[in-house]
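seq as requested:
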Amino acid sequence: MAKIQMTTPLVEMDGDEMTRILWKMIKDELLEPYIDLKTEYYDLGLPHRDETNDQVTRDSAEAIKKYGVGVKCATITPNAQRVEEYKLKDMWKSPNATIRGALDGTVFRTPILIDCIKPTVRTWKKPITIARHAYGDVYAATEYRVPGKGKAELVFTDEAGSETFRKTVYDFECPGVLQSMFNKDSSIESFAHVCFQYALDEKIDMWFSTKDTISKQYDQTFKLLFQKIYDENYKTAFEKAGIEYFYTLIDDAVARVVRSEGGFLWVCKNYDGDVMSDMVSTAFGSLAMMTSVLMSPDGKYEYEAAHGTVTRHYYRHLKGEETSTNPIATIFAWTGALRKRGELDGNAALSAFADKLDAASIRTLEEGVMTKDLAGLCEGIEPTVVNSENMIKEIRERLDAGM
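struct tokens:
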């Protein structure tokens, strides 16, 4: 069978540890035999990021702006332990945060559902999509380890050089820690527009939550801007579509979510979305069963798995031991990117292939062939546990049958 042709490349961002191993397996077994795969390749593995002083991450973000669609492997965000382990020059920032900031993007994460794995929350029947604001907050914060007694102040100086605000944060009587974070109206407004449009496209209700009763400026700014944009731009369209937008405090939202049947978009600030997407994915089954797409206001897309680099399995792999690492979310990152590339280029064959690979992956799981992380969650069938390599081969058998 002739390979499917591509006219425009994807931006391919390789990653770290066990997911880097899976990345190559997926390309070798599930993509390149069927597609004349065209990518602009960037190695975002931690050693290469260190070699380039993280320039490779910034370059990959610019490439997404140029080509419109990227697919990213999971990467390490180094802490002090990783700096020592990899002998790094610096404690480089999260590549995801860098790319999100460059694209001014919003992250949408949705669980992948299969019949034989029931959500931990018994009322959930439909997917819950988390929209995470991918700008500012603690991910771009300025931090300082306070060495001893002293006064911490928050100061703002306007562009004319005049100091317009000064307030004492805390008079330290002992060592402590200090953090200052920010956001900006333009990014919040872009976030709101992308979320409202996503809810309209999917025809699902949209819930937005912050803690404006405590954060009377920072969180309230989000609340007010969202309401203004909704009233001026989306209220009529939402009513016509028969869907609802409402705001509530995040603690109330958590209670509502747990009691709900799902089937809506839950919009969160950056840190809240980071935490809640892990909670939602785990309650639906596994972090390895969750898609993640970064969308920019001007229509650029970056697809990735929602989980990390699976360090524990990687160390076992280095010892020559067999691992049973779940590849599904990484496969769905590739299929999401290929499908979008096909949509944008008018390449129906490419989009159809992505649908077939998704279906083959789900069929494999529903026939009971799965990695160890899912086997203990399975109900109604007797699972067959396979290692990472054999899982991908099982999917290929079903993909061949579907082709």
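The CA atoms of residues 13 and 72 lie 5 Å apart.
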